[in-house]
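One such shown below:
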Amino acid sequence: MKFNIVEASMHKDSEGAFLGKTVFEVEGHKAAYEITFFSKRGKEWDYSLHYAHESGLEAQFMEVDAALEEDDDWFDALLDAAQAALGA
């Protein structure tokens, strides 16, 4: 699966935790996705996957969710985009 990053952002909250998101489109999928990231120290990351704007097909959503779980390069590219926005 190929994806295109639409936008990314990250900031630190008042307690120093990292909060970020990356909006991306997957080739051939109806809807865009948003992955949100959270880390207390910037080392171990929790994430949540959502539709960015409007709902799409559940089977496509599950395919993307599985790809994020199985492919570290995919996850890292989306996280890297958000982290790059922190320094911008």
